Amino acid sequence: MLTVDQVEKSYTGGGLFSRTSKKILHNISFALEAGEVLGIIGESGSGKSTLGRLLLGIEKPDRGTIQFEGISIGERAGRRGKISAVFQDYTSSIHPYYTVEKALAEPLKLSGQKGREVEERIDLLLRQVGLDSSYRKKYPHELSGGEAQRVCIARAVSTEPQCILLDEAVSSLDASVQFQVLELLKKLKESYGMSYIFITHDIQAAVYLCDRLMFVRNGQIVEIVSAHQLTDVRSEYSNDMLRMALRLAGSGEDRSVDLENRKERIL
């Protein structure tokens, strides 16, 4: 469905008289299958969010290709109605002067829906993300973090895209709310049959949601492994991240990873 082939990306920095180029992504290649959830795992500065912007067509790669069903993601036809996104900063993802109703109506109207169809769709979307119709008239500042992110998710699924990119979409939420949102994402995936690209530094969340994990370090893919086979990771970097996740799981949080039994879920 989505294919990334030998993608590279650099940014130019430095002062007016000293402009240097820093390569952020190096020879990135992978594929995302229909209905699959792929986790892109890496520490801050690993290049994973830059990759996310390229996958959304917000930026263009310096080299290589990104195609959705054989069409370049850089072309409008390659991404419109096919891929949407949910970002970490839910506070700025919704226009501060838009009600929830208006925020959800906007993509629906752009997709050609009108009148009563839009109204009914908004009610359905709110129900699907666990909110009732009373939220229609609320503004972003009246929502909790979890509620705001649910609205962002509802907007992302509103036009039924084939894929949603989630860029650190739960990392700003409290642990209990993270779990609720992850559960919501699982249910929506089952309802719509979508694929997810789940960009995160949180392996526990990724193991809970994803089918495969792609470890990224310094702009390069270290390895890609099934979420069911985490004990088979080969690289020192991946093992270090897994050990860190285990330490966090044992530090009093209410989620845990059981690598010995190769459990998919984090409870």
TrEMBL record:
InterPro entries: AAA+_ATPase (IPR003593), ABC_transp_ATP-bind (IPR050319), ABC_transporter-like_ATP-bd (IPR003439), ABC_transporter-like_CS (IPR017871), P-loop_NTPase (IPR027417). SUPFAM superfamilies: P-loop containing nucleoside triphosphate hydrolases (SSF52540). SMART domains: AAA. One of its GO terms (molecular function) is ATP binding. Transmembrane segments: none annotated. Keywords: ATP-binding, Nucleotide-binding, Transport. Pfam families: ABC_tran. This is ABC transporter ATP-binding protein. Belongs to the ABC transporter superfamily.
